[in-house]
Amino acid sequence: MKVLKETPFNKWHHDLHARMGDFAGWELPMWYTSILEEHRTVRNAAGMFDVSDMGRVWVTGNKAGAFLSGVLTKNAEQLRVGSAQLSLTCLEDGGILDDLLIYRLDIDEYLIVWNAGNAEQKLNWLAHWLEPNMEVAIEDKTHDTTMLAIQGPDVCQMETLKELRRLPRFGVTKTRIQGLSAYVARTGYTGEDGFEIIADVPTGLSLWQLFIENGVMPCGLGARDILRLEAGMFLYGQDIDTSTNPFEAGLGWLVDLEHDDFVGKSALLEIRHNGISRKLVGFQMKGRGIARSGYPIISSGQEVGRVTSGGYSPTLNANIGLGYVPIDISSIGTNFEIVVRDRPVLAEVVGKRFYKKGG
């Protein structure tokens, strides 16, 4: 029997009678009440997610910035203290090993927050490129800390978080919440405003209880998945992986080919020069049917791709999704078909960002 990893909040999830499931080897809540109710809570009020499964790796030392710049697609040394940026780490052939957030906590202190999947592979990947004379330390603190995401339009109105209202988008700070010390960032994965809070385990448990007492609804992965899909954000392992490159995924903006050499740069330069043959697109179903990950995409009677993510959007009251298709059918307004339960259903290419806050 597969033994799943547990976050420090695991008992509390069970006490709240959450429907639990396996996500990247972790036992996590899929939902507590219903996916629809939790989705609407985040869009209209405030919801809280246990995202402690995400990796939290500190990289420190006076060469930490230079080291990270050599393994990431964006220059970490240019990042200001107290700010964060999205980046990628790619293999030598340009395949995406992960998409991640890099936070600069101090001059010689960085924090990587990456996806739960293939964590050991990524740690080994970092260690592989670390030269002995660099005097850079890599410390995985995933199991020694917690991470909560508080998301929704009411978050910044909460009395307990009022001191954080001035934290800019993609800012990070070490602060106190009701006397409890934590790192707080303003990045997000749902399309709504909110904060990500990283703290030691006892503090994290206290913060969970504090937010519950302030009326924040715990939400599960079911709601988070459709929230991020509506916001046009990708799930590693479905929408991107080592078999995809940044340009076909529409993530070329995360690749700075002007900064010094980094792992995968030569391959990415060649890919950009030669061009891509397929592209990740957003689509909306025109016929009845919900597209799910893995469903075939059909054009002119031939299978040309597969759905990577799909589902029902409560915000749009429509069935939406993402998938890779050939360049010649990737333009907005183009139609193709998706096979849903052995039946082709018409779909139309639309922008990948289905939902924008406030509209």
Explained architecture:
The protein contains 7 helices and 20 strands. It has 359 residues and is an alpha+beta fold. The chain has 2 domains: 1-276, 2-Layer Sandwich (Gyrase A, domain 2), CATH 3.30.1360; 277-350, Beta Barrel (Elongation Factor Tu (Ef-tu), domain 3), CATH 2.40.30. The strands form 4 sheets. It has a 6-stranded mixed β-sheet with strand order 11-12-13-10-4-14, with helices on both faces. Strands 15-18-17-16-19-20 form a 6-stranded antiparallel beta barrel. Strands 6-7-8-5-9 form a 5-stranded antiparallel β-sheet, with helices on one face. The longest helix has 13 residues, at 201-213.
The count of β-strands is: 20
Q: For the terminal residues, how far apart are their CA atoms?
A: 46 Å
* Number of H- or I-type helical stretches: 7
Query: Average pLDDT, to the nearest integer?
Result: 96
